[in-house]
Amino acid sequence: MIGWEDVYKVITAMTPLCVALALGYASVKWWHMFTPDQFDAINRFNCFFIIPFFNFKFISHINPYELNYPFLGADCIAKCIVLIVLVFWTNCTRKGSCMWSITAFSLCSLNNTLIVGVPLLKAMYGEVGEDLVVQSSVIQSLVWVIFLLFMLEFRREWSKTKSITNTINGDLQLQAIECGSDLDQNSTPMSMSINKTPSIWSILKIVWLKLAKNPNFYACIAGLIWALLASRWQFKMPEIIEGSILIMSKAGAGVSMFSMGLFMALQERVIACGTPLTLFGMALRFMVSPVTMAIGSVVSGLHGNVLRIALIQAALPQSIASFVYAQEYGLHPDILSTAVIFGTIVSLPLLIAYYALLEVAR
Fold first, then answer.
1. What is the 3-state secondary structure of 102-157?
2. Which residues span the membrane (predicted)?
3. In the chain, which stretches have pLDDT less than 50?
4. Are 339 and 107 in contact (CB under 8 A)?
5. What's the rounded Cα separation, in Å, for the pair 147 and 82?
6. Is 349 among the domain residues?
7. Which residues lie below 8 Å from residue 149, measured CB to CB, with a gap of 6+?
8. Which SS3 state, helix, strand or coil, does residue 318 take?
9. What is the C-alpha to C-alpha distance for residues 65 and 360, in angstroms, rounded to an integer?
10. Distance separating alpha carbons of residues 85 and 74, to the nearest angstrom
């Protein structure tokens, strides 16, 4: 049973995040130390240097041969349910949007497993809770973060290609009007070849090449390879390498929250996305995610404390890294920042309430 000492441990783990957030906010709002361009540079540094080291550190220290596969299978099923619903919404409804689907997937799927999840689940369920939430974090980095990055790169490349094609088409039409001719009837083979919104395969090729160069991608893959080899032959990473990784990875959460504070200060209001979208994000994070996880848990046959851990970890607050990616790729960073901030604030009483309900339902 979770007690006041356990609650204090969780608050102790979360307070440094608030301090980093406040420092970032104050450095712009009151001290005027950073400009928007400098904020973008800080966020990019975090996205392509610090977070890859952070992901490598945790992935490289797991034992891939001792994972709880039913638990991870339930998590995979839950996220696949979200994906199926979003694909249907995007392609079969008038209001469907690829951009909003990516943001909704991030809100439903990426949670703060390490900073909030580890101390909270350890307090609730002991070493088993800590072990499972770390496994969830590793799979999140290996599979779902990479998938999110793929979708973000695809969306960026698709928008760029569409913009270039529209510009070329507009120039061709303008030339045709100036020449007093009809482009559709009198266009030359050269102009027609220029006129061809590239194929989906050519865009996918560009996306995969960019993703392969993304440090977040190969940091996860390198971490998995190291974990497989180290667990198989029982050897440890040299201290000189371990120290080099640690000095960068430890800055991950702090720099991310500081960057979020900068973003907040640059907005006209604290709730950057407005109340309706804030409630929408909270509903996806704390209601839709646990519901889909419950379905996945039933399909995977989870029971006992493993089932309870699965449901609570699905309701953890929003991943801090999701804001960093949203800002870097220019896709709804206001919604993600608000989800992280308010989600972290309300998560402790909400998750304790979930824990109490699950204990009563034993």
1. HHHHHHHHCECHHHHHHHHHHHHHHHHHHHHHHHHHHHHHHHHHHHHHHHHHHHHH
2. 7-28, 69-90, 102-121, 133-152, 215-233, 245-265, 277-300, 338-357
3. 183, 189-194
4. yes
5. 13
6. yes
7. 211, 214, 216, 217, 325
8. strand
9. 34
10. 17
8-state DSSP, 319: P
Could you tell me how far CA 201 lies from the centroid of its own chain?
A: 25
Q: What pLDDT does 262 receive? A: 92
Note the Cα 198 to chain centre separation in Å.
29
Torsion of CA 334, 335, 340, 345, to 10 degrees: 100
Amino acid at 146: I
For residue 171, being part of any structural domain is answered with: no
CATH assignment of the domain containing 347: 1.20.1530.20
Cα–Cα nearest to 251, from 50, 15, 24: 50
Tens-place pLDDT, residues 236-271: 899 999 999 999 988 888 898 899 899 989 888 778
Contact 317, 285 (CB under 8 A): yes
Inter-residue contact 256 to 17 (CB < 8 Å):
no
Give dist(CA 299, CA 124) in Å, integer: 24
pTM of the model: 0.86
Question: Which residue segment(s) compose the domain that 80 sits in?
Answer: 4-154+201-355
Contact call for residues 193 and 242 (beta carbons, < 8 A): no
Please count the structural domains in the chain: 1
Residue carrying structure tokens 């991870």: 72
Torsion angle of C-alpha atoms 150, 49, 285, 82, degrees rounded to 10: 20
Tokens of 104: 């909704």
Query: How many other β-carbons are positioned within 10 Å of the β-carbon of residue 111?
Result: 25
Q: Which residue is associated with the tokens 């309701």?
A: 315
Residue 233 counted as domain residue: yes
In a domain, 165, yes or no: no
CA distance linking residue 123 with residue 224, whole number of Å: 28
